[in-house]
Amino acid sequence: MKIQITPLAERKLKERLGDQPGLFKLFYDTEGCGCDGINVLLIVSEAQSGDVSIDAHELPFIISRQQEIFYEEQMRLDAEERFSSFKLDSHSQIYGKNILVRDLRNTEVPQPGAGIACEVTPR
After folding, report:
1. Which of 6, 42, 46, 85 gets the highest tally of CB atoms within 10 A of its CB?
2. Is 73 left (phi over 0), alpha (psi -120 to 50) or beta?
3. Measured distance CA(103)–CA(112) in Å, rounded
4. What's the CA dihedral at 71, 72, 76, 77 to 10 degrees?
5. Hey, is 10 helix, strand or coil?
């Protein structure tokens, strides 16, 4: 699997990663969302068993082997300067125009589990 990342999206993702180690995990959350599912980019501290690498140029991307079926082999990730969300698409479909990044590093939230990507947490 390969994700072509635009220069703007790469810059914004690197800003989100900061100077802490971490991996971007492409995750399709299908439970607890009240919909068919949503795509999200999780920042995790380490890969879990069953995770595989995604070729994303210089950025560290992974996906669960079980979730590879939801995505095509070649995709593109883009961003807009004024928004914090991302757009993931391929030649044949748009996976999402409002894909958010959720940083799970340094949290007690188990990574990733059912419903965590769209769970609303109190401030």
Report:
1. 42
2. alpha
3. 11
4. 10
5. helix
Burial class (CB in 10 A: 0-12, 13-18, 19+), 20: exposed
Q: Which domains does the chain have, with CATH numbers?
A: 2-103 (2.60.300.12)
> What are the residues whose beta carbons fall under 8 Å from the beta carbon of 46, sequence distance 6 or more?
23
| Confidence at 90, pLDDT banded by 50, 70, 90 | very high
Phi/psi for 27 (5° steps) reads -135, 130
In this prediction the pTM is: 0.82
Binning the chain into helix, strand and coil, the percentages to the nearest 5 are 15, 35, 50
